Amino acid sequence: MTLSRADLLSRTLIVNEIFHSLQGETSLSGLPTVFVRLTGCPLRCQYCDTQYAFHEGRPMAIGAILEAVESYHARYITVTGGEPLAQRDCPALLRLLCDASYAVSLETGGALDISSIDPRVVRIVDLKTPGSGESARNRYENIALLTPRDQVKFVICDRADYEWSVQKLHEYALAERCEVLFSASHGQLADAQLAEWILVDRLPVRFQLQLHKILWGEARGH
């Protein structure tokens, strides 16, 4: 059954926080962005920096979320978590954000099916490395669904993680499918070290820093 717009606007999501900041990662790094952080996540990555989103949150109708987003007068919107796809009505929120002419991206941990996501959304999909403690949860079927507008992200903890990531990069020809992002796990691998490895191996990836952490550290709402 196809739900009407009114029905979709009345659907409820558990929202951890909505805030306006600079995009800290991805190819849109540095752009003013509204973040909608949803509550809940089935993964427990050892380096997770948003554990507060596992359980903290309040119910909000999708219509109220759209009103909150609109109040910031921003073009770019990122729906994140936690794991936003853990909530059934996340795809409806993404669709309505696209209908409102925002440039919408989704940050997902890569363990859940992305096939229901509106094709207008930029899907930023993690491939969890062994160092995360959750690599067994990777849903590799998602890779075939990726398009050039999407992005795959690796958070790398050490040299073993790097070599694993390079293997996956080549095994799935990821750079030929979409943009690939390599970032160092904060406090576990030096950014300069990862940058050197990428240059030595001439990898077709984008090295990224966590801009928000450089600017604001671990402060929430940034």
Question: How would you explain this protein's 3D organization?
Answer:
- The protein is α/β, with parallel strands linked by helices.
- The protein has one domain (5-216): TIM Barrel.
- The protein has seven helices and nine strands; from the N terminus they run αβββαβαβββααβαβα.
- The chain has a nine-stranded mixed sheet with strand order 3-1-2-4-5-6-7-8-9.
- α3 links the parallel β4 (76-80) and β5 (103-108).
- The radius of gyration is 17 Å and the shape is globular.
Give a brief description.
The chain is an alpha/beta fold and 222 residues long.
Strand content is 15-25%
Number of strands: 9
Strand order of the largest sheet: 3-1-2-4-5-6-7-8-9
What is the overall pLDDT average? 95
Rg of Cα set: 17 Å
Low-confidence stretches: none
General form: globular
Count of alpha and pi helical runs: 7
Structural features:
TIM Barrel; 222 residues; 7 helices; 9-stranded mixed beta sheet
Question: Helices, strands, pairings?
Answer:
Elements lengths: L4 H6 L1 E11 L9 E7 L19 E4 H9 L5 E5 L9 H10 L3 E6 L13 E5 L24 E6 L2 H13 L2 H4 L1 E6 L6 H11 L4 E2 L3 H6 L6
Parallel strand pairs: 2-4, 4-5, 5-6, 6-7, 7-8, 8-9
Antiparallel strand pairs: 1-2, 1-3
